[in-house]
Specification:
single chain, alpha/beta, Purple Acid Phosphatase, chain A, domain 2, 5-stranded mixed β-sheet, 10 strands, 37% helix
């Protein structure tokens, strides 16, 4: 069912790049409502971090916490609490969060699109019954969302960022428009771009670490590193860690790929 969502682009070598000394960064790909995989990966990251020399650790979530998987509300709450308990946590706004927030603001066009891109599962995760969902028109569905989504969740999502940089890396949800400086990137591209970015063959201002575009495994190319491995369908939630000029992969089997 989901096979067309997965690409098989052949990875290429990434030029040497680094993050500032003393930092360790974990970037996590699209979660899409898979609380089970999120908890497994956070446990693996905590174990990996504690097994290494002391460093100032940052955890970056690349966006698309919600939709498609069964536990979007629970993922949002888990990460809202994680953020409060872990300084150095960062969240990027994915296109799915963008649509969700627009729907919650009363944008009926966004609400219609939301239910077409996996929003049904998100609505149900907030405690709306299947029967109520199926019997609702868009006006009634909007009222159900307002009644069930906690204001704390909305406020949390509204704080998400669009672009974070550390050293030679830029972290975004979808990608960047080639030829445009990072400072001039449009938020629509940072959250939605696909082919123009994925098919780019040259270098960019920084190596871009992103989610959004599903592949069968972590993708490493000269200009980008893709971490969306389709967790909602594949069961594989992926992260990459960065320290100095090294990086390594952690996935939901709890095992880390050796440093590269």
């Amino acid at each position: 069912m989901f096979s067309k969502l997965f690409s098989s682009r052949k990875p290429a070598a990434v030029p040497t790049a680094s993050v500032p000394e003393g930092l360790r960064i974990y970037a996590i790909g699209d979660i899409h409502g898979r609380l089970d995989l999120l908890d497994e990966l956070l446990t693996a990251i905590a174990a990996d971090d504690s097994a290494r020399a002391p460093a100032k650790t940052h955890v970056i979530f690349l966006g698309d916490l919600i939709d498609r998987g069964p536990s979007s509300a629970q993922v949002v709450e888990r990460l809202r609490q994680f953020d409060q308990q872990n300084p150095g946590t960062h969240f990027l706004l994915g296109n799915h969060e963008e649509v969700f927030l627009k729907a919650l603001s009363g944008d009926r066009k966004a609400l219609s699109f939301f239910v077409r891109i996996g929003g049904r599962e998100t609505v149900l995760s907030y405690g709306v019954s299947e029967e109520a969902y199926l019997q609702s028109d868009f006006e009634e569905l909007f009222e159900l969302l307002i009644a069930h989504v906690p204001p704390a969740h909305i406020a949390f999502l509204e704080r998400f960022e669009d672009l974070i940089t550390f050293g030679d890396y830029a972290f975004v949800h979808a990608g960047v428009r080639p030829g445009e400086p990072l400072a001039n990137q449009r938020t629509s591209d940072l959250r939605w771009i696909r082919d123009e970015f994925l098919n780019h063959t040259g270098t960019l201002e920084k190596i871009v670490v992103h989610g959004h575009s599903i592949a069968a495994d972590v993708e490493v190319a000269p200009h980008r590193i893709g971490l969306d491995t389709g967790a909602f369908a594949s069961g594989k939630l992926s992260a990459m860690a960065f320290e100095g000029d090294r990086r390594w992969i952690l996935q939901t089997n709890g095992m880390a790929v050796p440093d590269c």
